[in-house]
Amino acid sequence: MKKEVQDLVNKGLVLPLMEEFYTIQGEGFHKGTAAYFIRVGGCDIGCHWCDVKESWNAAIHPPTTIESMVKNASSYARTVVITGGEPLTYNMGPLTAMLKDRGMAVHIETSGAYKLTGTWDWICLSPKKVKLPTEEIYKVADELKVIVFNKDDFRFAEDQAAQVNDKCLLYLQPEWSKREKMSPLIVDYVMQNPQWKVSLQTHKYLNIP
């Protein structure tokens, strides 16, 4: 990447864009609502079950101006979800400020492993064992979404829930390839621990992006 482009990336004015699309939010609290998704490339956390591994290498995704992203998003929706990859790899301040100037609600889906930047209307924290969230994001997360791949993830979920703020909503979501095995366990767990809710990847059941 040329130095001048890298400088813009470092400032958050240009970001490696994997994809952007208008669809229905499939997971968590806002499931079933229309939103414009901006998926930023680049992630070094490396979850073995990740369903968007093609997002990991930022170098293969075109550096794109945030003006272009905002223009496209504002043509479709009032709510924008920034996801990845790991969006907090980058400075989210300029992008979120521009989206907010257009009167848009701005959400993020993040592992929380990097410094929180940007102005957000909703923060979905989806922590990963291999690189835990920063202390600051626990205090402001609106939603904790723990992906359940095996039984130890219930322990991990409780450990993470003990660190979030009192208003944070708690969700357990089966990893897609393990949904038939883990979903019944999640249902039983939520029935015994009703502070948790079940999250499903409903967009996959509906066969939409």
Annotation keywords:
209 residues, alpha/beta, TIM Barrel, nine-stranded mixed sheet, 7 helices, 24% strand, globular, S-adenosyl-L-methionine binding, S-adenosyl-L-methionine, rSAM_sf
How are the SSEs ordered, and which strands pair?
Layout: H1 3-11, E1 14-24, E2 34-40, E3 63-65, H2 66-74, E4 79-83, H3 93-101, E5 105-110, E6 122-125, H4 135-140, E7 143-148, H5 152-161, E8 169-174, H6 179-192, E9 196-198, H7 202-205
Parallel strand pairs: 2-4, 4-5, 5-6, 6-7, 7-8, 8-9
Antiparallel strand pairs: 1-2, 1-3
CATH-assigned homologous superfamily: Aldolase class I
Under the CATH scheme, which architecture would be assigned? Alpha-Beta Barrel
The general outline is globular
CATH fold group: TIM Barrel
- Strand arrangement across the biggest beta sheet: 3-1-2-4-5-6-7-8-9
- Give me the Rg, rounded: 17 Å
EC number: 4.3.99.3
Organism: Aequorivita ciconiae
Enzyme class: lyase
GO biological process, one term: tRNA queuosine(34) biosynthetic process
